Amino acid sequence: MGTSAGEWCVIESDPGVFTSLIKDFGVQGVEVEEICTLEKESFESLKPVHGLIFLFKYVNDQGQPDGTLIDDAMNTKVFFARQVINNACATQAIISILLNTKHEDLTLGGTLQDFKDFTQSFDSNMKGLALSNSDLIREVHNSFSRQQIVEYDGSSEKSEEAYHFIGYVPIDGKLYELDGLKSGPIDHGAFKGDWLDAARPVIQKRISKYASGEIHFNLLAIVTDRQMMYEKQLEKLNELVESSMDTGDDSGSSNPLEEEMKDLRLKIERETQKKRKYKQENLRRKHNYFPFIVEMLRVLAKEGKLVPLIEEAKSKQSSNKA
Question: What is the pTM of this model?
Answer without folding.
Answer: 0.81
